[in-house]
Write a structure and sequence with these properties.
Chain lengths: ~550, ~350
């Protein structure tokens, strides 16, 4: 009998727990957060963003991941920045910049008002420390300060506290643009040194500041990083010592939410304010919703087909006529419908929006199967052929490359080219083969490392992406020479003209077919104003405002 | 004494098992083409040999395979699982950080699965071939056959979004302060520290993911309980007890259920292990910061030190649960001996 009573009690307790749990089911909203934290925090403006993050470090000396600039961009300042009003860099920490006649020296004057969150003044010594450290760490970030051939920053001088002189190995018309990237974030050197930071050539083995910088920021931006827990959330709070215009939100929580469906229903329910990783299909289901705003904008992410020029690697697709046939056989309109509304097709590998970019191609009229067949007839394979098409498991802007591959397959079948799609893992070998330039025919994507069209010149013959398609400088010396010409051209109008010429020359004659410039979709609560996609920061958090 | 010997023997076996698992995972990770360099370096950095070399040196990828293995096993025996390439933290600290969230979810799930599984199994067996039996069997078959990712999306949509009966993703509502860290189990920590708001909130966040995780195991337990109980009920000694006029309840709970419990216990043990493995998708959909989410992110970014750490942890869990289940056999059925 006693045993039965015990069992019954256990059952009642269990049911009570379940019922209690279900009863407490009111979802917390951002307003609820303010209410639950009584007293002084009732007025706090809190923003919650859901994201499938790729970041794992916030040390500007290492970070390069897609979403890292969203955090580093508001916790640190750079000498120049890209503002929402203009595609051209504007001064941030620098109050002015003088470029020497030979284009080899940049003298920046630092804004005397600039202070770090710690209260320390921002000085030229901090700039030198930060750039030297980022350059010497030999990390992803270092590649923007010095390239594989040793081109880039060779020396930094600090004649006084407010002046920093940067010497380059050769003129670089995109240098100011590069200084807007997170690799050039200026760190509070006193704090970083105290936590193991080293800026000289011994940095790769001896610098131990990354652990510190992964959990705390040491910059002069409008926010400071309060906490970061991988696979959980990151919290930013307003920097009370910020020397510029104060942002609107007091606290920003970036919640890890890898599943896009969960993001979508959470934003509709009001538990989060912004959902970041949604596809075009998901957007369609909320486009008429009165509770949320749908924001879309073009990204600088572009998808392309690579056809290797070396016959030993590219086989049939190394033939120039086959390359042209493929270019005209693809149904770009169909491909764009897979990617979603807002997709555009750049003329070549300079994305729409960049300096000198030509108007996008009209995808409704570009496809020409007769022309494609005619080109194929001029090749050694007039009756078509069969070829392997390795495709990685990557998904730029949430669209798997395998989906694009399927469409390419069905399009090319119409002119007699049969492709065998070979699914591959990016980290499991595909990435290495792509980097080594041993893939014959594939589909890939590319996003610029810094906001400047010079970044795209990596696709030219003899440059590192060009090499991946076997496009060596000797195959097109005229085009290869334009790389140096554009890099050295400091007159923006002339640079734009040269970039236009590059696009004209490569529109039909290159081993790359750029099929799309991807759009980005964001769903935000109507309570959040000024939500925009930023190609530099993914989202400029300082611009967001809470609706009254 | 026999039981103690048995446990020591099983623990030694567990150590051997973990060494085997560690070696297998290491070999598998090295059989995968590529060394992860492409996963971590940007296209621009990949073109810079100096950066590529520095990366390989930093992570020991420049050393011969056998040297990598010796270092790896040496560190492992010292309890050092290495550093996660993705998070930059020690793998052990990542596991320690994420483990309580998973244990909390798995415990709640196994509790639900066991309670409802055994209950449904008993009802099914006693009401054999009735409408209730047919319905419960249908429920258990559905639980076993529905994919967890689909069920997760479905329950989120219905019970969180449409009906608003349960909270959505995460371990706690964003506005509520997590309880002071004692065990890492929010419900327990909330209770110990008297932070009842946090305790109830975290308990409510457990509901949907634990229902999803419990559904498969509950189905298995229901079916096993029913089958085992029906078999026991048809034995001679139960028939004799019935003939002698033993009341139904003691007959069922004391005599029949005790003997039918062993297969059920086995299923519960296996189910608990499966829960830990099945966490990956459910934790990802529910943004649950546990071992499943860690596994998902580690696999996605080819973070081999972390992948090995997660594999070892799950293997260790299986081993410990099996030891526990073996011990429980003896408690439930004294005929089970450990000295053979």
């Amino acid at each position: 009998m006693k045993k039965r009573i015990r069992i019954m009690l256990a059952l009642v307790l269990m049911l009570t727990l379940v019922v209690t749990a279900c009863g407490n089911s009111t979802p917390a909203t951002t307003e609820g957060q303010s209410e639950s934290t009584e007293g002084s925090q009732t007025e706090e403006k809190v923003l919650v963003i859901a994201l499938e993050p790729d970041y794992f470090t916030f040390d500007p000396g290492y970070a390069y991941e897609l979403y890292a600039p969203m955090i580093i961009g508001v916790t640190y300042d750079t000498l120049y920045e890209i503002t929402p009003d203009s595609d051209f860099p504007a001064p941030q920490l620098a109050s002015e910049c003088v470029v020497s006649e030979d284009g080899l020296s940049y003298t920046f004057t630092i804004n005397p008002n600039a202070v770090f969150a710690s209260g320390n003044d921002v000085t030229s010594a901090d700039v030198k420390f930060s750039f030297d450290r980022a350059k010497n760490l030999q990390s992803n970030a270092s590649a923007l300060l010095i390239d594989g051939e040793g081109n880039g920053i060779v020396d930094i001088e600090t004649p006084d506290e407010d002046t920093v002189v940067i010497h380059l190995s050769k003129p670089d018309s995109s240098f100011i643009s590069k200084t807007t990237s997170t690799s050039y974030a200026v760190l509070d050197s006193a704090i970083v040194i105290a936590n193991g930071g080293i800026s000289d050539i011994t940095a790769p083995g001896k610098d131990t500041a990354q652990d510190y910088l992964n959990n705390q920021s040491a910059g002069s931006g409008p926010y400071i990083m309060e906490s970061f827990s991988a696979d959980d959330k990151l919290v930013l709070v307003k920097n009370k010592n910020y020397w510029g215009e104060m942002p609107d939100y007091d606290r920003i929580i970036i919640q890890d939410m890898p599943d896009a469906n969960s993001q979508l229903i959470s934003v509709q329910k009001g538990d989060i304010d912004i959902a970041f990783n949604l596809s075009a299909d998901q957007i369609a289901s909320v486009s008429s919703s009165s509770d949320v705003n749908v924001i879309s904008g073009p990204t600088m992410t572009m998808g392309f087909l690579l056809m290797h020029n070396d016959p030993a690697i590219g086989q049939q697709v190394s033939d120039p006529y086959v390359q042209k046939a493929i270019r005209y056989a693809l149904d770009y309109e169909g491909i764009h419908s897979i990617i979603g509304e807002g997709t555009v097709m750049p003329v070549s590998f300079i994305q729409s929006g960049f300096l000198g970019a030509l108007d996008p191609v009209d995808v409704k009229t570009f496809r020409d199967l007769e022309k494609a067949k005619a080109f194929l007839a001029q090749s050694p394979y007039p009756d078509g052929f069969t070829i392997d098409f390795p495709v990685s498991n990557l998904a730029p802007e949430g669209i798997p490359l395998t989906l694009i591959a399927e469409k390419v397959k069905s399009d090319l079948q119409e002119i007699g080219i049969n492709i065998n799609i070979v699914p591959r893992d990016w980290g499991g070998g595909y990435g290495d083969e792509y980097r080594d330039g041993t893939l014959g025919f594939t589909v890939m994507y590319w996003g610029p490392d810094y906001y400047d069209p010079n970044n795209q010149l990596a696709f030219l013959p003899g440059q590192f992406v060009g090499h991946r398609a076997g496009w060596t400088a000797d195959l097109n010396p005229e085009l290869a020479a334009m790389h140096e010409q554009i890099i050295r051209e400091t007159d923006e109008a002339k640079r734009a003209e040269l970039l236009g010429q590059v696009q004209m020359l490569t529109a039909e004659n290159s081993p790359f077919i750029v099929y799309a410039q991807y759009p980005k979709y964001i769903v935000a609560s109507k309570d959040v104003l000024n939500v925009e996609y930023s190609n530099v920061y993914r989202m400029d958090l300082t611009q967001l405002k809470k609706a009254d | 004494m026999n039981l103690a010997k048995f446990i020591v023997k099983r623990l030694l076996f567990t150590v051997m098992l973990l060494i085997g698992v560690a070696t297998s995972v290491f070999i598998l990770s090295k059989m995968v083409p590529g060394d992860g360099v492409s996963s971590y370096l940007s296209p621009r950095s990949l073109a810079n040999e100096q950066i590529v070399e520095a990366f390989k040196v930093k992570w020991g990828l420049d050393k011969p395979l056998i040297v990598q293995y010796v270092y790896y096993m040496k560190n492992l025996l010292q309890g050092n699982l290495g550093q996660s390439i993705r998070t930059g933290n020690q793998v052990v600290s990542d596991l320690v950080k994420n483990y309580p969230a998973t244990i909390e979810l798995a415990s709640m799930s196994i509790l639900l699965a066991t309670f409802f599984g055994v209950l449904f199994g008993i009802v099914s067996a006693t009401k054999r071939n009735s409408l209730i039996d047919q319905s419960l069997r249908a429920v258990s078959v559905t639980g076993v056959s529905v994919p967890s990712f689909w069920l997760a999306i479905l329950v989120l949509y219905v019970f969180y979004y449409k009906l608003g009966w349960a909270p959505g993703t995460g371990r706690m509502s964003l506005g509520i302060q997590a309880p002071r860290h004692i065990t890492g189990l929010y419900v327990v920590d909330g209770f110990i520290t008297g932070n009842y708001e946090a305790m109830l909130d975290s308990l409510s966040h457990l509901i949907l993911p634990s229902i999803v995780l419990a559904s498969f195991t509950m189905g298995l337990i229901t079916r096993t309980t029913r089958a085992s109980l029906l078999e026991t009920l048809s034995t001679d000694y139960i028939r004799t007890a019935k003939a002698k006029g033993l009341p139904k309840a003691p007959l069922m709970y004391r005599h029949a259920m005790g003997n039918a419990a062993i297969p059920v216990l086995t299923v519960i043990g296996v189910g608990f292990g499966n829960l830990l493995g099945g966490m990956v998708l459910v934790e990802t959909i529910f943004a649950w910061p546990g071992i499943g989410q860690l596994a998902f992110q580690s696999v996605k970014s080819l973070d081999f030190p972390s992948i090995i750490g997660v594999s070892l942890l799950i293997a260790a869990n299986y081993a410990v649960i099996n030891i526990f289940i073996d011990v429980m056999y003896g408690v439930i059925d004294p005929r089970v001996r450990y000295d053979r």
